[in-house]
Amino acid sequence: MHENTIELDAKNFQEEILEHDGTALVDFWADWCGPCRAIAPTIDAIAKETKGRSKVGKVDIQTHPQVAAAHGVTSIPTLIFFRDGVEVDRIVGVAGKGVIQQTLADLSQAA
Question: 96 falls in which pLDDT band (50, 70, 90)?
Fold first, then answer.
């Protein structure tokens, strides 16, 4: 995991994402998921590029299934975008870097 990406679990999700003022991206993934591994470098790059502007976190659904269930994640990879702790968008499946970046940029401008 990249140093700019937050490893999220049931204990820190509330504080890191739901109580965060600003934009956040959460990647729900699992180690056995090929598409999840394929987009991991993209998520890590976005975390580095948006450091200080948006939080980027990852939830391993195999280790923390309760967090995935609480957010209605039934397929992975799922990217959920939050603004001020509220889900405002989601992408299910693999998405290109440009799409993810644009979604975060749109949320930042709307904030």
Answer: very high
Q: Is residue 63 part of a domain?
A: yes
Distance CA 77, CA 60 (A): 10
Does 86 qualify as catalytic in the annotation?
no
Sign of CA dihedral 38, 103, 61, 3: positive
pLDDT in tens, 36-66: 999 999 999 999 999 889 999 999 999 999 9
| Active-site residue (options: 6, 33, 43, 79) | 33
**CATH number, domain at 68?**
3.40.30.10
Does residue 70 carry a catalytic annotation? no
The CA-based angle 102-16-56, given to 5 degrees, is 30
